[in-house]
Structures
1.
Amino acid sequence: MSVEVRVAGLGQSTTEVTSAAAAAKEAGEAFVAALLREEEAGSITASFESLDAASSELEEADDRISAFQEDVLVKEAFTKGTDLREYAKQIANELDAVEQEHVLGCMMGSQSSFLVHMTEQIFLDVKQCQPFVDLHRQIQACDEILQRMESLMHGFQSDLGNISAEIQILQDQSQSMNVRLKNRTSMQTILNSVLDGVLVSPDLIRKISEGEVNEFFLQHLADLNKKMAYVKSQQGQHIRAFKDVGPELERLRLRAAEKSKEFLIKRIESLRAPNTNIAIIQQNIFLKYKELFWFLAERYSDVAMEVHNLYVNTVGNYFLVSFEKYMKSLQKLQTVIADKSDLIASEESGKRGLPGLPGIFGAKQALKDKTNVFSLGERLNVTTTADPGIILTHIAEEKNIKFPFEAIYKSLSRLLMDNASSEYLFDTDFFSPPRGKNAKLTKDGNAGALTFSEVFEPTLRLIQAFNKTTIDASFDGVGILLCIRLNMLNLRIMQARRIPCLESFMNATNMLLWPRFQAIMDMHIDSLKKASPRSLLPSKDVHPHYITRRYAEFSASILTLNQGYDDALLINSLFRLRTEVEHLLMRMSGEFPDPKQKLVFLINNLDLVVSILSEHSTSSFEQEKSHFTTLLESKTNEYVDEELKPYFANLMRFVSTAESGLDLASLQEENFERIAAEFNQNWKGALGNINQSVMQSFANFQNGARILHHALTQLVLYYKRFMSLWDKRFLNRKPKVQPIGLQSVMVEIKKFRSSFQ
């Protein structure tokens, strides 16, 4: 019964399965036939095109199979994972078994109608199962086709594997060839280097041995030097060619050294000719053939040292003789600004004699000329002008022009700086051969610096001795300070040039200048301490003293040269000098018996200092101007009181007493009236006397006007205070004396003020 049921269920889709299998078979046969044709033709590309066509037919068969799978029983078989081929075989076996049972039953003689009916039914079922058998056969045919396709694919895979192996072999061969090429290239480079290093051409031998020293000789000399350097660097290599070429290179080395030495010595000896411009020869000849000395320094050090020593002696002697001659000429052009008697407190009258007679009977310098010792004036131009200021001695001698020491110092130092800079640059370029492997451009600057020191050492000692002698003999403080500033400017110029060769020399010069300047300042201070007021004021003149003018101009010079430097040493020295000047003025004022004359003397001298300092507006003057202005105002206030006392002493004393805190009622009215009557009687005459006294006492018109204005203002203030007290005391009473109105006094005072406007 189970067989019948399964056969009955499968009968519904027999036609569809048969048609799908037939389509699949046809597609497979077509694909195989196409592959076979393509295989016979040998065209792989056409085979793949047939494969694409067969694939499309297989896709169509697959669509039919998908439709067949919609059957219930087939879907159930697929769901359970039943293999259709096995399932078909099972049905066939069951049919055979049933058939045999029916046949046996018939043979046994069962003639019942039931069995006949069953047999007929079985035969009918067998006929209905025939499509499944056909389906099984078609599936087997498809399997055979797919197996042939699989075999063909395996063949393709094998062919591709062979091709990949061949490609790998070609790649390995290419890498091997590349390695061999690199090795051969490297070997070629090494061989070329060896050949270049050991091959000495006949042309090289001829040019070195017989050729003239010129630019071509330098090229061959460089080639020879490279070959020698290469052979020396390969000493550890056992190459026979190096042993063969060594003696030849040695002979060429000796010959090249001999010719280089002869050439350089001749050029150095030519520098000894008179009026030779060494700088031009250095630039045009020596630097052009500096490789000759470099070759000697590297390959024949003894000869290089011989050439070096000859150059040092020749050029060093040239500079020594030239500067010695120049300094002797400068000494003839120097004018002495000051000597040991030209100090601030030196007595001017002691140096005057008979006009026109020299020595002890004649005047050395007039007073107006002596101020040049302390004033700066146009001497400042030596530090501000961009002109190097080099003095042409022969022209100056013809025109009989004289120069102060700072001008001579500037000319000498700038000439030294220019020559030293040129020589230093040449020495560092010529005597500093390249160092390092293969003549790299890095140089040893110490060799050039040492050569410069050897060349210029005698000249620098000579100049330093000249400076020391001149500086130690100088008493010109302004000139020494100018030289200090010039030396600082020279240092900055050399630093801007980045040439350090004169730094130690300039520092040593500074050590000469500063102590001498301090010594001159000490001399001025000592002269002020030792000065005799009686000798300085023989005529008891209240006008400004020449010592004050000297001090004012000297301090103005120092402050001008200290602008932008703020040297503590200068500020301290100037403070000491100012203190001694103030002490001397106080001692000199003691020579006047009248207190008012003392104040007039001090005011005139302080006003002179303030006037000279006020001519300058730089910041370095502010402290000094403030100090002397304050001192001048203090002495002016004292003078005003002294000027008013002879005429208004009672008024001033009465006002001070009345304002001291006493009760006005306690002051007697008679005292108010007496002071008022006295003022009414004398005030106009007193104003005239005060005006005349101020006009006679102060030479400076502006100073006199300022002091008169101050005195009259003080008088107005005193009288205004008196009138205020008067109004309070006589508030309810009428006084016996009516004081002059304040407005009348001010109108009268304006008359005197207008004369100074």
Note: The CA atoms of residues 63 and 85 lie 20 Å apart.
2.
Amino acid sequence: MEQSGSPFSAPQPRPLPLINHVPPRPHTFHLPAASPVPAVPTWLLDSALLSPAPPPGVMDGPRSDVGRWGGNPWQPPTTPSPEPEPEPEPERRSRRGGRSFWARCCGCCSCRNRADDDWGPEPHRDRGSGSGRRRPDSRGSDSRRPGSRASGVNAAGDGTIREGMLVVTGVDLLSSRSDQNRREHHTDEFEYDELIIRRGQPFHMVLHFSRPYESSDRVALELLIEDIVYVDHEDWRQEYVLNESGRIYYGTEAQIGERTWNYGQFDHGVLDACLYILDRRGMPYGGRGDPVSVSRVISAMVNSLDDNGVLIGNWSGDYSRGTNPSAWVGSVEILLSYLRTGYSVPYGQCWVFAGVTTTVLRCLGLATRTVTNFNSAHDTDTSLTMDIYFDENMKPLEHLNHDSVWNFHVWNDCWMKRPDLPSGFDGWQVVDATPQETSSGIFCCGPCSVESIKNGLVYMKYDTPFIFAEVNSDKVYWQRQDDGSFKIVYVEEKAIGTLIVTKAVGSNMQDDVTHIYKHPEGSEAERKAVETAAAHGSKPNVYTNRDSAEDVALQVEAQDAVMGQDLTVSVVLTNRGSSTRTVKLHLYLSVTFYTGVTGPVFKESKKEVVLAPGATERVSMPVAYKEYRPQLVDQGSMLLNVSGHVKENGQVLAKQHTFRLRTPDLSLTLLGAAVVGQECEVQIVFKNPLPVTLTNVVFRLEGSGLQRPKILNVGDIGGNETVTLHQKFVPVRPGPRQLIASLDSPQLSQVHGVIQVDVAPAPGGGGFFSNAGGNSPLGETIPMASRGGA
């Protein structure tokens, strides 16, 4: 049997109708020679997003905006346990309302009424309202929809079994993780025992009949052929759909940090969580075949605003009521917590939102990657420029600087066709779950064609103006004049979207994807894209009346410093003219969050520099640890504002430079071989780089197929002290795996480590070890194995 619409499926020529699915429980079907067999429901991973198309005649009505629906009152959904205890089969079948696993994705199995196919309204605003209530769409009454083909059928249509009639007495879906179906469909990693297959590939089933099959009998299946997310590269499919871990990049363009993230899309409970997200938003099954709609819904539901979604964003620096975003090492703990409690999880920042989005979309079968944009602009007034205001002395006017430039920002690319756009805009689409600005009244962003971003076509949906400004706007410096007006004194054309990277296919190297987002900086095509976009912004005449005198060039350099050490920043001035130039230079240093929000200036320097023709002069400013330590905020970033005025020709110099203090890594060592089902041990070593005690230190450990999310409370670690921990775990799946750890304390965060673990199959050739329940994520107090001095 073949269906299509998967990253793994080749395009098919035309759609065929889809008849109703029936539950996988044993049923008797009365099948005359001319009657089709109802299709057996399965988990369909791809653009169908784990649901069938609506029954014939049940279609979605028109809607003004993808991701918002009106219709029947929404009821708080059930929050099933991510690690359910198995029940005896008779009890599970007899419990009224205890719907089968299949009911979560099959419209007829969930017995939804015709009215349930409408787009539901937004959820109630109670954060915890999902707990303890039954899911109306997937765990409701067992009564059948009138006329459903899930009931027995025959030539007369009355359900009567007639003598000699061919009757289906059983269906074997060959659903074991070691069976052919699961292997060929690349779903054998899912820690579930039900059949999970992808559209567009043949699959196998065995039908058991009441009598021998005869040549005059007719058995037919009618399937929907649909392909909108097909990826025509096997290595891309392996990376962007099947890879359970990846690299996320952060820091600054000149000081790139990287961390390993456990996506864990095949872990037990994650698939339930992904369906729960769609159910909680009230998304009807009929809409789940549209990746544009689904990705837009996911971008809204991964953040908690509007709809009590998965993650609460927090950029305040105070994480006392939750988890520091830097402490997370993967998506699994977050998604299972949301599924288990129905409450939004505290806290997330951009890389956490993006990591969870990658997990959800890969789990649902969409090719997805996590992308980092360095020097990412946040345009608040739709001018499509980054506007920075200064006083008469070129000191920043922070109360006017509402636009900001993030050191980095992380979002997602997902692959799909865009039938809702003109031709030429298929392929990678930006989806951003970090809540920054609203889109049609909801905190969501995308999907937005990368091709439209590249060419400044900001009128294309969705949210192209905002994303274009993030990657390719100009930084415009405005100086207050004596009469109170503001004048453009400098335009920095290469300051935004300076580097856009993602993890490379098949390796842990960086892949520079800047070229697919923008034309080469300064090229005619790039300037045309910028000016095209700006013409549709709120300041279309921003590029008129610019001063052109630029004899003196300015460059900022910062040494690669480690947290706890002194550092030096330098400004290099070069006179490219033929006459002497005198520069009055001002340096202002402040700490900054990675989002561009700055603290007060804690050090400044002023100097007059005389430059002979062709000369270069370096102006340095040393910064001691004791000066910046009281000011530090998340991720140890600092912002140097440099401004200057050339006396002879009135040229204005302006530059903002962000740099960060590096944090140490955790060292992980595997002690012995790793085998499925057998206990093994890992050693974690950490040295405190600070001369102060780290208090309330928490380690996190996680790895798909290795270790369920685990929290380790280790207490305090003294200044410059080295500690060693030992942890045991039991691998549950063979193959190359990533074990990831992090450390967090109020004094130090952004500390990570990772080790690759090559897991051998269990003795006797067993491929999998049944341990879906895994280890408890609850915290435990762990004594140090050893302590040492500096």
Note: Residues 10-43, 47-156, 772-776 have pLDDT under 50 and may be disordered.
